[in-house]
Fold this protein.
Amino acid sequence: MFHDSSSAIFLTLALTAAAAAAAAKPIIQIREPNPTIDLNFAVRLNLSGVSLVAHDRARAAAMIFSTNTSDARKLRARAPAIDATNTGVTYVASVGVGAPATTYSLVVDTGSANTWVGSGKAYARTSSSVDLGKNISVTYGSGYFEGKEYNDTVTLSPDLVITQQSIGEAIKSSGFGACDGILGLGPVDLTNKTLEGRETVPTVLNNLFTQNKISKEVVSISFAPTTKQPNMNGVLTIGDTDATKFKGSLVYTPITRTAPANRYWGIDQSIVYGAHRTNVLRATSGIVDTGSTLLLLATDAFDVYRNTTGAVLDKATGLLKISNEDYAKLESLYFSIGGRTFEMTKNAQTFPRALNSYVGGDNNSIYLVAGDLGTDLGSGIDFINGYAFLERFYSVYDTTNQRVGIATTENTYSELN
Ligand SMILES: *[C@@H]1O[C@H](CO)[C@@H](O)[C@H](O)[C@H]1NC(C)=O
Ligand SMILES: *[C@@H]1O[C@H](CO)[C@@H](O)[C@H](O)[C@H]1NC(C)=O
Ligand SMILES: *[C@@H]1O[C@H](CO)[C@@H](O)[C@H](O)[C@H]1NC(C)=O
Ligand SMILES: *[C@@H]1O[C@H](CO)[C@@H](O)[C@H](O)[C@H]1NC(C)=O
Ligand SMILES: *[C@@H]1O[C@H](CO)[C@@H](O)[C@H](O)[C@H]1NC(C)=O
Ligand SMILES: *[C@@H]1O[C@H](CO)[C@@H](O)[C@H](O)[C@H]1NC(C)=O
Ligand SMILES: *[C@@H]1O[C@H](CO)[C@@H](O)[C@H](O)[C@H]1NC(C)=O
């Protein structure tokens, strides 16, 4: 089991600053990753302590809690008090704050929008730090932080330096383990009421755009399956998409109109299974989220998947486990997003075998990446396309056009697992 950062698995990813960063220039297509990238963007797996499913479900519950529906109340009553932010898979970026900058390891989170430091390494104020004289507080799953808000210089890479970025300093926090805070890449409305006396706080993306550091308010994420060896196998592109990281064309779909998914990177999708196109998930709303590990499905959709595949819930891991016989028959899931079909292969549905022992599983068993969201269809967040999905498809978070882009990649049909 992992107990600290030294025994955790780190995959080194890289961040490409958009070459087209300069203000008035037309958008320049990025043709290859910038070799001088400075932002150290890594996938950190921390599978100890609590099952992945419980982690993802607590996070989902917190997102659904943002409304006061009966589903939200039911989930709230059932949600375990667990460390919801710091277990499972997190993407950690090295971000500089201040002048001269102190470097912090921040969770890259598309499901929240405040940026803050200080849960691990303390905030080091410099001459660029301006105390805004206001308190800030944000709750995530069962984790939270509260503290003071500053304006400060934030350095993502030498090409991406933001001045007067509103950032939080955690005075009290819980649930962030070895990380120093969060780089919030979610929609700005998620910051509503977090800072006293303010409706919203400009996000890092908002400021990069208003300060003309990027010409489009867009973040794009490319991941590879976790078992693949490190070596430039993932890229976070700020300000544009990177055509070298996906195949064919991007399909864009508007942010869903259904609450509460529409507060996040929410989309509409449906899912069918296998050659007979068995309905698993009717067309409904949910979210794409770097902060979730699994592919989470509303309980009734999850039950259809479980019944259809013959998989059974495994007590030791909390994951679905499938026999060799049923695995031999396992077919693809077909996601319908924005009018296009995306195939999640049998291999993509398989939990990385090399990690079985880290989640309490047997090396010789086969586990699946679909998890039970914990509430039936109709809560407004009926699925979460987490890391298990994102490592097989390219994803684009486009604030300017209020849409999410998805494309296939060289990993979509990869057999590595
Ligand atoms: C949520 O709704 C329930 C029932 O309508 C009500 O009793 C409760 O006070 C509400 N909670 C909040 C935080 O608005
Ligand atoms: C901010 O919070 C602290 C306690 O953490 C409190 O003492 C202080 O009065 C608060 N400031 C404002 C302006 O509300
Ligand atoms: C903080 O930064 C914002 C821009 O993000 C700016 O509008 C505001 O005036 C700054 N506040 C102070 C007190 O410097
Ligand atoms: C991993 O998770 C455990 C349990 O939540 C936590 O105590 C620990 O600090 C985490 N480690 C890292 C490197 O985040
Ligand atoms: C912020 O929340 C309030 C209700 O608490 C709502 O009236 C307002 O429209 C929200 N603003 C934004 C920008 O979401
Ligand atoms: C799954 O199978 C069980 C047992 O056969 C059955 O009770 C249940 O209704 C099925 N659920 C779905 C969603 O097909
Ligand atoms: C299971 O696999 C892990 C990593 O692949 C290895 O470290 C461990 O020794 C294996 N356990 C057994 C019982 O073979």
